[in-house]
Amino acid sequence: MNASPITGGCQCGAVRYRCDDLGRATICHCRMCQKAFGSFYGPLVTAKGLVWTRGAPKHFASSNKVQRGFCAECGTPLTYDYGGEPEIAIGTLDDPELAAPVLQLNLADKLSFVDGLGDLPVREWEQDSPQAVFMSGIVSHQHPDHDTDQWPPAPSS
Q1: Sheet containing 51-54: which strands, arranged edge to edge?
Q2: How high is the mean pLDDT in each 10-residue block of the chain (157 residues)?
Q3: Regarding the domain delimited by 6-112, which CATH topology (the fold level of the hierarchy) does it fall under?
């Protein structure tokens, strides 16, 4: 059991959750997870004692056996529910470091280039480059990585 509450939610803040503990964290390579996450795989972790603290996900039956929860406002993928303990998308945790994957699933659909991603070159922007200036001017409208009493924040006067 984790000492502090484990919290998370979607990027717009309309849906927030809390859980008591996390189970096994996985990377699922199935084609349905690729499409549901719009990514190369689906990073998921079992959420023990999951409670919705603000809003609730909308659901899509991605198969005859699985419901996938997502935020109806911003589209963030939130859950994978197969009828057992629900799983949550690792990236929606306020602290995703709590859920390092320990297992890969459905390797038959694994994309051929995934294993080489860590070997790709990294682009660093020079301090005054147009890209660095662009990045430094970005103001996030995403919900912060912690619970808030109100979201979006009340306008300041």
Answers
A1: 6-9, 16-19, 51-54
A2: 81 96 97 96 97 97 96 97 94 98 97 96 87 85 86 69
A3: 2.170.150
